[in-house]
Each structure stands twice: as C-alpha cells, then as structure tokens.
Amino acid sequence: MLDIQLLETVVSDQAELFANKPLGVSRSVDFDRxxxxxxxxxxxxxxxxxxxxxxxxxxKKLQPFHFITFDDERLLDFSVQDFQPLLLVxxxxxxAKVMLLDEVQNVxxxxxxxxxxxxxxxxxxxxxxxxxxxxxxxxxxLTGRYFKIELFPFSFREFLAFRSLPSTPRTTAExxxxxxxxxxxxxxxGFPEMVATKDSETLKNIYEDVLYRDLITRFKIRDVKLFxxxxxxxxxxxxxEVSYLGLAKLLGAxxxxxxxxxxxxxxxxxxxxEVYKYDWSLKKQFVSNKKVYAxxxxxxxxxxxxxxxxxxxxxxxxxxxxxxxxxxxxxxxKDTRECDFIIRDKNRITEAIQVTRTLSAExxxxxxxxxxxxxxxxRAKVGTILxxxxxxxxxxxxxxxxxxxxxxxxxxxxSTVSL
Length: 419
What we know:
Layout (H helix, E strand, L loop, with lengths): L3 H16 L11 H6 L3 E6 L5 H9 L6 E4 L13 H11 L4 E5 L7 H10 L3 E6 L2 H11 L4 E6 L4 H7 L9 H17 L3 H6 L2 H17 L7 H13 L4 E2 L1 H8 L4 H13 L3 E6 L4 H6 L2 E5 L2 H7 L6 H16 L3 E6 L3 E8 L2 E8 L8 H15 L3 E6 L4 E5 L2 E7 H6 L8
Parallel strand pairs: 1-4, 1-5, 2-3, 3-4, 7-9, 11-12, 12-14
Antiparallel strand pairs: 6-8, 7-8, 9-10, 10-11, 13-14
C-alpha cells in the first residue's frame, strides 16, 4: 500500500493544479442533463482530447468536490487496496459528496470503488482513454448506473469557438474567415493543445504517447516494429477498405489473428475507428472488409505518408468523426456501387451520405449512382452529397439529392432534402 503522506502530497498538489486549470472552450455537451442525474458520468476518449478540461468545466457547477488523476507517476503502484486510504485523505480535506476520478482505468478493480461511492450517495465522474477497459467493467459492475460521454478532439464548431469565429457567419468577411478556418481545421485537426499552439511536435508527442503508454506498454506488445508499421499504414490509408488477412500479408505478419488483435487495441484507444460494411447478415458484416478512419486529421497528416487524393479522404474522415460525435450508428455501403456512409437508427437505415471534394462531370454519375443504390437497397429516405463548397439539388429518377458544402453540414446550417 502507498504511504499516507505520499497520498496527501499528491492530492494537495493535484488539487492546486486542477483549481488553476484553464477551462478552455465549452464543449458541446448537455451539462444540465448529466448534472441533474444521480448516475455515474463516464467520459472516455483519446488521450489529450480534453477530458480533464471537461471535468474542470463540470467542476465549476459542482462545488465542492474531490479530484484525483491516476495519470501521475507517483501513483504507478496504486492498487485497489489504496482506494480506502485515498478516500480517508480526501474526506480529511472536505466533506464534499462529488468525486472526479481522472484516467481511472489505470487502476485494476476501480469499478468496485466507484460503485461503492455511488451507493454511498456520491456524484461520481470518471474519465479514461480506453473504451474496452471502461466498457467491460461498466457492463459487469455498473449496469444501469452510468451515462457515457465519448469525447473527441474539437468539432469544427468548437474549433470556431476557440478562434472566436461565428458558427453562423452572416457577412462576407465572416464567411471568408470561416472558410479559411475550415482549411486550417482540416490541416491541423482538433486536438485542443494543437489548436492552441499550432506546434506540430504536439501531434507527434500525442501519437507516441498513445502508441507506447496506452498500448505497447499496457498490453505488453512484443512485436513493436510490426505494431508501429500497422499504425502508420492505417493512418496513411484512411477512408479505404482493409482486411486483416491482406494487412498480414502486406506487413509480413505471421497471422491475421495478430493483426486483428492489434487493430482492436488501436480502436479501443480511440486511435482509429473501424466502419463495417452494411449487410442484413451480421455474420457477413463481421467478415467483410472494414474502412478505417483516424481520430484526427492533423495527427494523420503529421505522421502518415501523403498522397494527391488526400483532400477527399480528409473530408471523409471529418464526416466520420462528426457522425461519431453525433452518436450515429455508421456503416458503409457496397454492392455494384458504393456509398461512403449510411446511418442506422433503431434497426432502420435513415440516411445515406457521399463525400467528395468536388462534384464534376467526371465523377457525378458515380457518386449519384452509389447514393441512389444505397437508398434503394436500404430503403432510406434522405440522401446527401457533401462537397468542399458546392451547393445544388440534383433530381434523378424522381428523387432529390442535396449537394451541400461540408461546412454547412458540420454547422447544421441547411435543410435536409427528403426523397
């Protein structure tokens, strides 16, 4: 067990730092909903996406409170037996009934302590950087007792707020500034620290932290070279189909099982996201190729190899991330034609989305045909083509398709066209 004096020092040091933590841009979270509920609030997301800052934003509405982060080298040997001494140290400081636990998944058995706090009437907030480690414990011990917030790097709306730009530009000058901001957003991404500093080393450091601290070290990955090659390959080839067998052959892995395991680790750490091909058969969904997207376009551009078609892929990646932020259940469609995204809501496909930088004479037939086939096969009602800046309505086969600038869609400043 850790020494009580050490715990007291850590708690005091962290409390002082947390009290002076800048609040930054208010995140797009329904604060009132989570504050009003007695449920545990679980905030998960990639490292340095702003989880601690979101905790600080909540804390201003929750005075008094206790705070502890387990992402502290002095707590490397913290174990489940240390929770009780920690609680005594915290209670000695104040009688607050609000507990903020940052990066709690670093401690095995954390969920039992959190459940005890909840049962004793505490309002509990926890954060973590690994979806699987959080979700498995939550499902086992905290079912029905928690709300989950998945926090991503800044959305474009949050990016504009950080730059003090309007999300509903009205004048020509404002519209020009928002357009320029989107180009910057596409290039540097939405990690708060990167947006603040514009220092490319920030993204490289986050990349290394996720790979080594959250994955290679935690999961004791032996073939580090293969793992790093896989991570870079996936970031390089965003918005394209991949198979575990194909990746194994390409990278010289002994087995696709290892590749699948590594991809699972990368997904659980929010490093990448996988999108399944939509099929009525769940078995076919699982065995089909997946499409892979990066957690951040800036990180992807900083550490991956780049190609001439990157602009369209980056736009598609931005759309994927925004759909995830909106809590959408996302798939891709592929038959004789292809469609980038289809959205499922309560076992029904509601919308199909194509993404292309420019809709031209050369690609319009392909993009429209893929969208229409997805709508017909999935019996969906809404079809949208997102482009860099074009806006028009396409009428085809008695249907209307909205062609919308991606910035309008990201800021929701357009009307959906129903077929």
